[in-house]
# Entry
Amino acid sequence: MFFKRFELKQNNTNIKQEFVSGLTTFFAMLYIIPVNATIMSKAGIPFDALVTATALMTIIATLFSGLYSNTPVAMSVGMGLNAYFTFGLVLGMKIPWQTALGVVFLSGILYLLITLTPIRKWIIDSIELDTKRAVSAGIGAFIALIGLKEMGVVVSSKETLVALGNLGDSEVLFGIFSFGIALLLSVLRVKGALILSILITSAIAWVSGFSALPKEFVSLRASISPIFFELDIKSAFSLAFVPVIVTFLITDIFDTIGTLVGVGLRANLFKDNDSLSLQKTMEVDAGATILSGVVGVTSTTSFIESAAGVEEGGRTGLSAVFTALLFILPLFFLPVFASIPSFSIYPVLVIVGSSMFSELGKIDYSDNAIKYSTFFIVLMMPLTYSITNGLMIGAFVYTLVRIIEKRYEVFKSAMFFMAVLSVLLFGVL
# Structure
């Protein structure tokens, strides 16, 4: 009876095929646990609690995605937004991590309201696909810069802003080696390439004595009590935080739409922008983001790694259910995750960023508004160390070009709305 709800026969699949799909997606996105915990712990949040919270949110969000929307879409803490949370808000703007979690919570509330109203369709329809691709590429460049910086490959410089780091340093060299392994496995399309690269380079570091071995391999999960319900909604509920709330909201929506478009095309999941399964998946995404702020991590989003499972034949929510259940395993291997060296993890950001950056190749540059706005979106995100700035400046340029071209239909679009925000909140003019 349980399996009938997934309509396996109607979708030309079976339990075995869905399990293989779920297992593939699990391995493809397993890297998110150590990577997210490492990134967010730099904001002063306890690493052990983050490992548990990340796994729990992945389990909950992915399970509900499978059961409610019946799609093979797995969800977890979003890459890019976790970096923005740590390096942009907490370390950059000196915002307490509790307040930043409040920002995540409020953005989730707005996201859920949008999914339940016609605004969802308006956003999807009025923002051109090429602009969504530019945002994905910009976030990719931002993520890659963070990865290269944390690896020591790129360092700050008073004379030239940035410069090449000390490539003779042993940890930098090990990071480059880790990147090479990740790149090799990714190019060869090895399933679970990213988590395998982390495991391989960590094992080499442990065996060689370059990094300390975990004292134990199996233990009960760490409590999330140090971060559970620690969000500060009152402080986040301020006009000063409107830009960052909007950034989390827009980026989460773009991440989800981009993923669902990509995975949906391959698996023929969503027939149009009014698809019920599309709406349900976005509702789960929004609800999970609200819960993420409560649990102690940043926004949850649909993972593009779900495409790996789709390639293995996953066509229903049963695949996502299997992925969710498999994520219970990391809860009992906390010491292993805690001992993974950072130089094994940050190269993954460069690989993920590179993959997102490839979206630029699909853009039609014959459209002037797209051409110039894409340039500013992609360039300003890493240069200003802010997704907000890149997105808003790009929207302003897009709107300006459309007005110059006397294409006044732009006034009815979400891009015009963001352009107005850029003027009001950031003083672009």
Summary: The mean pLDDT is 85. The CA atoms of residues 84 and 266 lie 30 Å apart. Strands lie at 75-77, 154-157, 161-164, 300-302. The longest helix spans residues 242-267.
